[in-house]
C-alpha cells in the first residue's frame, strides 16, 4: 500500500507562508516515490501579509488555511482534524510562515513558542515513532520541542552562500545538536526519526534545493 504522508503548510509565499518551491518539491518527490500526500494547515490568521515585490508588510489580513489551499489546489484539511493513526510520516516545508504562523521564532528566536496544534502533531508523530521531515527553517520546530535532537539548517558560518547561518547558532542554544551539511544533503537523527535538509537556507541553484528535498523525502519514506 502507498505510504500516507501528512504535509503541513504555513500559508503561501516565502516571506509570510510556506516557501512555494519547497512545498511543491515535497509534493513532486512524494508523488514520484508513489506516496500519497495529505495536505494540512492550521485555520488561523497569518501573523501579517508581505508584498513579495517590495518585501514589506501590507495592510491586510489573510488566513493560513485559505492561503495554503492555493498550493494544495484546494485539496487541503484543517490541521485540527489530523489523525496520526492513519498516517505514516509527517513533512513540514520551510518558508517564513513556519517562523511567523506555526511559531513565534521570527520575533522571539530561541524564546519562541510553537502553535499548540503544530506542537501536538509533532509530538504525536514522535510518540508513534513515525518519521518527520523538515526543511529550511522548519527544523527549529523540532529543536524547540525535542531537546537534544539532531538537525541541520546547512552551515553555521555566515557567508554569501549561507546568509542565514546564524540560525544554526540560535538553534544550538535550544539544546539541539546542529550538523553542518551541503544543500543536497540531509541529516538523519535516527533516535528521534527526524530528517532535515537546508533548502533555501542556502543561496543555491533551485535544482540543487529540489534535489536536497528529494533526498529528504526518500529518507522519510525509508523510515516510514
UniProtKB/TrEMBL annotation:
Gene3D superfamilies found in the cross-reference section: 3.40.50.880
InterPro entries named in the record: Class_I_gatase-like
Annotated protein name in UniProt: GAL3B protein
Gene: Gatd3b_1
